């Protein structure tokens, strides 16, 4: 009766695992060196147990745009290559060995994978394990649209072990300079300007005085110059020119009224277009939006001023006394005389040249005819 229990135990293990458990795992014989090596390494191996080391297991973590690589060492996975036909490395599935639970700790709306995606890892005879899984990290990004459409994107990724403390896992970041030469440089919308990383120790989420190593990657991206960006810059120059042209032309001219109305309408269209194209996030208001708002105010002012001046020029009544007095005092000054010569008609200019010593009666003689005109030009 006592001898039946070992037999039952053997039958159960065969049915569950499909093979007999070796009590002496390192004594294996096979015709294939690779098969013998895998039996030698994994016969008594438990993938759920963290490698037992004197110090914390050192994990080298390297981040790239399309993947990341993790490297660490396990003393259990060592062998002498001379005993296995000079095999220096083998490939194993990531779910067959213990892998560190390195996950992203940034707060995003995308779910977090707590396990490494299934991938083939390389195990070297020294016990070093290298895994390069393909995964997607969604970082937390801070948008700076100050100089939109040449805006900047500042993204941060925090990487750490989910359940192991710094006494068990020591995270070490690899060099990030190679990332700038990655395939992401072919992206037609964004370019990587700078990438840096930092290492620090934080309090573990489990509390109880435990700490964890945290790797922080900061990626600075800038939008590429494009035809779309050039269009907005060109429009700003065109709108500024139209506003200045409106104020330069004669108030009575039809061209001024046409340009003033067209300028105001174009400002409305540009402002609406920019409002829909600029993302509704960011830490500052884009300068382009501020420009369009202030330029729209100037365009509206120039349109109203043109309408008022055109109305005043059509008046045939005498101007109020205070307006005539102010206009007369300005035009009698030296600056006013130059103003008359350079701006007004040739008759007034000729009269000033004939009587350079005394022009004080010039305005008073033509007050009824020229007061509103002088006032309009002076205001415009």
Automatic annotation (TrEMBL):
Domain Neurotransmitter-gated ion-channel ligand-binding per the UniProt entry, residue ranges: 67-224
InterPro entries: Neur_chan_lig-bd (IPR006202), Neur_chan_lig-bd_sf (IPR036734), Neur_channel (IPR006201)
SUPFAM superfamilies to which the protein is assigned, alphabetical: Nicotinic receptor ligand binding domain-like
Keyword set, alphabetical order: Receptor, Signal
Record Pfam families: Neur_chan_LBD
Bilayer-crossing regions: none
Keyword match Calcium: no
Keyword tRNA-binding appears in the UniProt entry: no
GO molecular function: extracellular ligand-gated monoatomic ion channel activity; transmembrane signaling receptor activity
Signal peptide: 1-18
Entry's Gene Ontology cellular component terms: membrane
Protein name in the entry: Neuronal acetylcholine receptor subunit alpha-5
């Amino acid at each position: 009766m006592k001898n039946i229990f070992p037999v039952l135990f053997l039958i159960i293990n065969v049915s569950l695992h499909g093979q007999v458990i070796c009590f002496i795992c390192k004594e294996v014989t096979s015709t294939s060196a690779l098969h013998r090596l895998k039996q030698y390494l994994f016969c008594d191996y438990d993938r759920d147990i963290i490698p037992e080391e004197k110090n914390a297991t050192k994990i080298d973590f390297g981040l790239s745009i399309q993947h990341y690589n993790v490297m660490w060492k396990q003393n259990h996975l060592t062998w002498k290559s001379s005993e296995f036909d000079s095999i220096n490395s083998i490939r194993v599935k990531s779910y067959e060995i213990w892998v560190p639970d390195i996950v992203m700790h940034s707060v995003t709306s995308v779910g977090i994978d707590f396990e490494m995606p299934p991938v083939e890892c390389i195990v070297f005879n020294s016990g070093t394990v290298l895994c390069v899984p393909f995964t997607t990290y969604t970082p937390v990004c801070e948008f700076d649209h100050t100089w939109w459409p040449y805006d900047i994107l500042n993204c941060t990724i925090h990487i750490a072990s989910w359940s192991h403390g710094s006494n068990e896992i020591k995270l070490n970041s690899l060099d990030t300079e190679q990332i700038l030469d990655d395939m992401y440089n072919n992206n037609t919308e964004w370019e990587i300007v700078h990438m840096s990383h930092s290492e620090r120790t934080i309090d573990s989420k489990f509390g109880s005085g435990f700490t964890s190593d945290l790797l922080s990657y900061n990626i600075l991206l800038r939008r590429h110059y494009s035809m779309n960006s050039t269009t907005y810059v060109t429009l700003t120059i065109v709108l500024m020119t139209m506003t200045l042209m409106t104020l330069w032309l004669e108030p009575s001219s039809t061209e001024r009224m046409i340009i003033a109305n067209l300028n105001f309408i174009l400002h409305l269209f540009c402002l609406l277009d920019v409002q829909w194209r600029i993302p509704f996030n960011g830490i500052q208001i884009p300068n382009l939006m501020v420009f369009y708002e202030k330029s729209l105010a100037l365009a509206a002012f120039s349109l109203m001023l043109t309408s008022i001046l055109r109305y005043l020029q059509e008046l045939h009544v005498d101007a109020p006394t205070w307006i005539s007095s102010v206009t007369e005092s300005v035009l009698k000054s030296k600056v006013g005389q130059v103003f008359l010569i350079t701006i007004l008609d040739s008759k007034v200019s000729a009269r000033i040249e004939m009587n350079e010593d005394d022009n004080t009666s010039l305005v008073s003689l033509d007050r009824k005819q020229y007061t509103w005109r002088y006032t309009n030009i002076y205001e415009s």
